[in-house]
Design brief:
With 260 residues, this protein is mostly helical. The protein has one domain. The protein is built from nine helices and four strands. It has a two-stranded antiparallel sheet. This is Phosphatidylglycerol--prolipoprotein diacylglyceryl transferase.
Length: 260
């Protein structure tokens, strides 16, 4: 069993102002996506330009923050927030949903594409390879915050997390950082390195994320207030990943079959 590193969640403190590691992880994710997007925008088969990428990043930030928060409220704790509506705005207390953030970014892609003569599929294919680094940093932030830890295990790399009852648990945040962040980035970036059928880069991202998240959820402790959602073993995260997996498989199959 390993010892959990006792991180100080505050990165820098100046008087009453605090910069927390979790917030910094969001900044790292946004900056990495922006820089990768500017590089990707130089490729000749993209309609995106570095200047447009500078504009789009603002739309993406709004999509991530608003969608992530609204998604957490609706998917994970609707009854609490409907009873305490002012708590919806207390983002400093935590509570962001990847699936909500993804829907927020999809709305941003649709709106930005309409305003800049790009189809939803074109812009979605452009943006998809830029997302995994942000997922990597986000999961590292979860690990530093000692949240979203895994289920009990006796594996040698298990560790007891603060507030988790002292039991050795899977460091599931690190599993997700490796799979959803590093591995997914390598696969989608490689696949997007040359022209592909329309929508397939985005579909591969959805398929890859859905599969990796579905798998890691077997090692991740379900949310206490939700437990298992279906079949006495399926978590909310797995339930939300199923449409991603099915759409990813279906779109890739249809696209190659019809040579779009």
């Amino acid at each position: 069993m390993l010892e959990y590193p006792q991180f100080d969640s505050v990165m820098v403190s100046i008087g009453p102002l605090e910069l927390r590691w979790y917030g910094m992880m969001y900044i790292f994710g946004i900056v990495s996506g922006w820089l990768l997007g500017r590089y990707r925008a130089t490729k000749p088969w993209n309609k995106m330009t570095p200047k447009l990428m500078d504009d789009f990043i603002t739309w993406a930030i709004l999509g991530v923050v608003l969608g992530g928060r609204i998604g957490y409220v609706l998917f994970y704790n609707a009854s609490f927030y409907f009873s305490n509506p002012l708590k919806i705005f207390a983002v400093w207390e935590g509570g962001m949903s990847f699936h909500g953030g993804m829907l927020g970014v999809l709305v941003a892609i649709w709106l930005f594409g309409r305003a800049n003569n790009m189809t939803f599929m074109e812009l979605g294919d452009f943006v998809s390879p830029l997302v995994p680094p942000g997922l990597f940093f986000g999961r590292i932030g979860n690990f530093i915050n000692a949240e979203l830890w895994g289920r009990y295990t006796d594996l040698p790399w298990a560790m007891p997390f603060p507030g988790a009852g002292g039991l050795p648990r899977h460091p599931s945040q690190l599993y997700e950082a490796a799979l959803e962040g590093l591995v997914l980035f390598a696969v989608v970036w490689w696949y997007s390195s040359k022209p592909r059928p329309k929508g397939c880069v985005g579909a591969l991202f959805l398929l890859g994320y859905g599969c990796f998240r579905f798998l890691v959820e077997f090692a991740r402790e379900p949310d206490r207030h939700l437990g298992f959602i279906a079949l006495n073993w399926m978590s909310m995260g797995q339930l939300l990943c199923m449409p991603m997996i099915l759409f990813g498989i279906g779109w890739i199959w249809w696209s190659y079959r019809n040579d779009v």
